[in-house]
């Protein structure tokens, strides 16, 4: 598949590149997959998924930024993850098991996404020669993300988490409110200000 400006703009070429990192896919298989995708557009602050709903979609961010978060026992929002361009966003456990979601997903900017439904995923398993491998690799990536997130909270110092976040999410400070970043790092906004000063003067 050669790069095309239309495909590049709507995220399909980036999705193709991502898929081919995981599996070999023929032109006919690719055409089948792309024909099943839907394209959705969200405004800043729109909610794509509410906690307690069953997640029926995987979102591939073509443009913009998503935040995955939950409400803790103090009724405060806690950011779990940010989804930048050319990455996936969903609640995989809810999506795969058909159970109520533990997370909400919100657009932090005007955001365009390609949507993969549960039914489409099942068709990918059935039609693509390496479809099940693709699904397994994407699920593994999500597992590693969750594992790294939990391990970092218990093992890494706040400044280490801060620097890792900057590497993982370039320019995130210019794209989301600081209180969302603080909750992602599991620290207070005041502590975040101290970390920014320490990092800038190191």
UniProtKB/TrEMBL annotation:
Short name of any one Pfam family annotated for the protein: cNMP_binding
PROSITE patterns recorded: CNMP_BINDING_3
Lineage top rank: taxon: Bacteria
Domain (Cyclic nucleotide-binding): residue spans on this chain: 21-124
InterPro entries the record matches: cNMP-bd_dom (IPR000595), cNMP-bd_dom_sf (IPR018490), RmlC-like_jellyroll (IPR014710)
Protein name as it appears in the record: Crp/Fnr family transcriptional regulator
Upper lineage: Bacteria, Pseudomonadati, Bacteroidota, Flavobacteriia, Flavobacteriales
């Amino acid at each position: 598949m050669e790069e095309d400006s239309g495909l590049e703009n709507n995220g399909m070429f980036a999705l193709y590149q991502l898929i081919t990192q995981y599996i070999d896919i023929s032109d006919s298989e690719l055409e089948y997959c792309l024909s099943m995708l839907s394209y959705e557009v969200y405004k800043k602050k729109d909610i794509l998924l509410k906690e307690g709903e069953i997640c029926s979609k995987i979102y591939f961010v073509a443009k913009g930024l998503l935040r995955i978060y939950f409400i803790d026992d103090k009724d405060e929002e806690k950011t779990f993850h940010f989804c930048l361009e050319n990455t996936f966003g969903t609640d995989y456990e809810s999506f795969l098991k058909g159970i109520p979601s533990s997370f909400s997903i919100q657009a932090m900017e005007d955001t365009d996404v390609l949507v993969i439904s549960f039914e489409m995923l099942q068709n990918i398993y059935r039609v693509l020669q390496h479809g099940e491998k693709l699904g397994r690799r994407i699920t593994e990536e999500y597992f590693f993300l969750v594992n790294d997130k939990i391990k970092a909270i218990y093992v890494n110092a706040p400044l280490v988490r801060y620097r890792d976040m900057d590497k993982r999410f370039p320019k995130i400070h210019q794209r989301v409110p600081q209180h969302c970043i603080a909750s992602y790092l599991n620290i207070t906004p005041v502590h975040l200000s101290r970390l920014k000063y320490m990092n800038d003067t190191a």
